[in-house]
């Protein structure tokens, strides 16, 4: 992969880590604090559920829950987009590698050497070098 691709992947991973940090270290503790406050208030006999203060606290709590859901969805979306990006880049790189391998295969075929076995797997370097040596020996013998 190119340097740009590596930077792009690192940037996306960093953004995901930032979102996870916000969720785990800011939103969740606030939700827990509001839950504790609301449960304490509900246990009080002096609580007026229709009071402005209680309604504001409940509204802020609901807002935090919405933020939590939104950031959780954003993290999932970002992770899936990152996986998709890496997969797409890998398929492009695989195509390029296969194309380069085919070009190299043609060069070696011109020399009378094959790089792959009949089943499509690559031959060992030792086998290829032995065949290459034999090919060169034949060419040297023909040139004499």
What's a concise summary of this model?
The protein has helices spanning 3-43, 52-110, 125-143. It has 144 residues and is an all-alpha fold.
Describe the structure.
With about 140 residues, this protein is mainly alpha-helical. The chain folds into 2 domains: about 5-95; about 110-144. About 85% of the residues lie in helices and about 0% in strands. It has 3 helices and no strands. The protein has helices spanning about 5-45, 50-110, 125-144. Helix 1 packs antiparallel against helix 2. The longest helix has about 60 residues, at about 50-110.
Features:
single chain, 144 residues, mainly alpha, 2 domains
What is the radius of gyration? 32 Å
Please count the helical segments. Answer: 3
Unreliable runs, pLDDT <50, ≥5 residues? none
Please give the domain count. Answer: 2
Q: Helix/strand-derived class? A: mainly alpha
Characterize the main sheet: none
What is the averaged pLDDT score? 87
Number of DSSP strand runs: 0
End-to-end Cα distance, whole Å, is 46 Å
Described by the principal axes of the CA atoms, the overall outline is rod-shaped
What proportion of the residues is helical, as a percent range?
Answer: over 70%
Strand content: under 5%
Element-level helix/strand string:
HHH
């Amino acid at each position: 992969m190119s340097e740009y691709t590596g930077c792009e992947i690192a940037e996306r991973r960093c953004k995901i880590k930032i979102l996870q940090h916000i969720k785990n270290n800011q939103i969740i503790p606030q939700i827990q604090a509001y839950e504790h406050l609301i449960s304490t208030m509900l246990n009080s006999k002096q609580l007026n559920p229709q009071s402005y203060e209680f309604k504001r606290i409940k509204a802020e709590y609901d807002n935090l829950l919405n933020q939590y859901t939104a950031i959780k969805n954003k993290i999932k979306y970002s992770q899936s987009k990152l996986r998709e990006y890496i997969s797409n880049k890998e398929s492009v790189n695989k195509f390029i590698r296969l194309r380069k391998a085919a070009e190299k295969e043609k060069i070696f075929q011109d020399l009378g050497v094959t790089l792959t076995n009949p089943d499509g797997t690559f031959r060992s370097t030792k086998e290829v070098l032995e065949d290459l040596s034999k090919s060169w020996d034949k060419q040297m013998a023909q040139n004499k």
